[in-house]
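INPUT
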Amino acid sequence: MAVLAWLTLLEGRRTRFLTLAVVAMVVGWLVSGFAGELAIIEAREVGVGILGSWLRLCAVLLITLFAVNSQMRELHDKQLELFLALPRPRGVHLVGRVMGQGVVALLLALLFAVPLMWRVPVGQVALWGFSLWVEQVIVAIFALKSVLVLRQVPLAVVATCGFYVLARSLEALQLVGHGPVMPVHSPFLIFVNSIIVTLTYLIPALHRFTRAEWLMYGSGGWEDFFFIAAQGLAAGLLLTGMALLDFARRRI
Amino acid sequence: MNGKRAAAGLAITGLALHITLTALQSPPRALAQVLPAPPSGKVMQAACLGEPETLAKILMLWLQAFDYQSGVSLALRDLDRERVETWLTRILELDPRGQYPLMAAIRLYGDIPAEANQRAFAAFVHRQFQADPDRRWPWLAHAVVVARHRLRDLPLALRYARALADGVTPGRVPSWAWQLEWSILEEMGDIDGARAALDALLVGGRVTDPAERRFLAERGRALAPRAAP
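OUTPUT
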């Protein structure tokens, strides 16, 4: 497992993943600085809010592409078949890959926390960085699972992005579906609302992760930390378990 | 070698074509756009992907820059006031802790030299103040100044000053913010009312600082001679 994690990290270095991350960070820093200059008041809030949201989006997109690309290369190079042929449990391979993605996600979260340190209290940046790491790990596991099931880069990327957008907008969809002007007795609406409610039990509530408001107003606290840790653990176990099931059924 | 020449020829042809097409196009004309109606609050909540505060900040910058678009300087007074108000309301709904929309209402749009606008945006700030007085009081204090010095509407200034005094929690905002009432009453010529307001401050125990109490008592005494017929 440790070897696989190390190989994933090495791959990150060799594919200029870090360079791309630094470019995203610098672009975000410039854009948020510009936006902050435009603001008449609340310049700090505007700047850190835009920077935080930008970095969050970049981190998730980068880890998705990296996880999909990494797993797809392994499929194409027949490395996966080689690993599966070795006399060791299949789960070891997948967990090793997840660990590798976790380390890459940790490095990315640490890197993206740096430009925020100057304008936001350390505790809030630490919470934001921790949340970004957990969020990335969840997305990376889903991306790995998507590749194993779909075996196509565009499909896996679209599926992961769809999962991510859904996870961040489920609460808003729930609120929209139960608005005062909605036809509450419509069978179609009842059906859709029941699907949305079911999804909330299966998909992590990513709308509560990595909030820009923590950076703007310093409103993050221990409650958020424990929620993210618990939600991350639950989602990580669920997604890894599902990926292991797919993996176990795979034929060489 | 031939391959390289062909590639270079292709690139140069493409570049020449691109330059020609751009040169043939008519120069861009700046057209002022009408401020669109904002989507509903729920649509905005769904569109922000769980980050309403960031969307609020971006929308505020966009709205602030709407009078200066694509090289056309559109006078702020030409903007649809009701739409601006609805946008500001939506932005506040997204980020209730944000002060920017209230500042923009009273100091940006409320600065337009048109009485109807100034009254409307002062009333907007008054309405929004009631939702979170201790956070939003500076903008109602500004509305008092607008009503008193720009609109010269002392009864309106008095109404806002009283709302400010009644709404905020003493100790959480500076004392001057809830002591505007008596000075407006004095300016209105209602000396008895001004004294009563000062007495209420002193007797009610809202002013605890001895120096401030002494100052207000002296002001009350200074008002007294003028109150005599």
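end of record. Chain B has a mean pLDDT of 84.
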